Amino acid sequence: MIPIQLSTNNNIYMAKAAMNSASQTNTSANTTQNENGFGKALNNAVNEVNQLQQDAQTNIENIGSGQSRDIHKAMLSMHKADLGLKLSVEVRNKAVDAYQEIMRMSI
Predict the structure, then answer these.
(1) In 25-70, alpha helices (H)
(2) Residue 95 in 3-state DSSP?
(3) Where do the structural domains in the chain lie, given as residue ranges?
(4) CA distance 42 to 48
(5) Which of 12, 51, 54, 95 has a CA 20 to 30 Å removed from the CA of 78?
(6) Is the CB of residue 42 less than 8 Å from the CB of residue 19?
(7) What is the pTM of this model?
(8) What angle do CA 30, 15, 4 make, to 5 degrees?
(9) Residue 3 pLDDT > 70
(10) InterPro entries of this UniProt entry (predicted)?
């Protein structure tokens, strides 16, 4: 049997660290806005992707240990986790591209 490895969680941890450092730079006057703002939405999205990966890993372990025979469910959860991670990486790439484009603008 070939071992299946899901994508690493490094991107998730890096995104959480970036969100934490960005949220620390906000002033206390914006706390009401931050509760429903972009940071909150980004944090929820990262947590959801992380949960998808954990669910996929659990399903794979259950198949490997013989606790489950539902390969279809395991494959679906793996694909959901893969798509979620790919989407989050693409969103990150677009945000970095936008930042770099802004930094190239002359004042």
Answers:
(1) 31-35, 38-65
(2) helix
(3) 56-107
(4) 10
(5) 95
(6) yes
(7) 0.63
(8) 155
(9) no
(10) FliE
Cα separation, 1 vs 72, in Å, equals 17
Pair of tokens at residue 11 = 């991107």
Per-residue confidence (pLDDT) for residue 75, from 0 to 100:
95
Q: Inter-axis angle of helices 71-104 and 38-65, to 10 degrees?
A: 150
pLDDT digits (tens, 9 = 90+) for 10-61: 455 545 555 554 445 444 445 555 567 888 998 999 999 999 999 999 999 9
Contact status, residue 79 vs residue 71, Cβ threshold 8 Å: no
pLDDT at 68 over 60: yes
Sign, Cα dihedral of 25, 30, 35, 37: negative
Q: Do residues 60 and 78 lie in contact, with contact meaning Cβ atoms separated by under 8 Å?
A: yes
Residue that is written with structure tokens 């934490």 in the block: 20
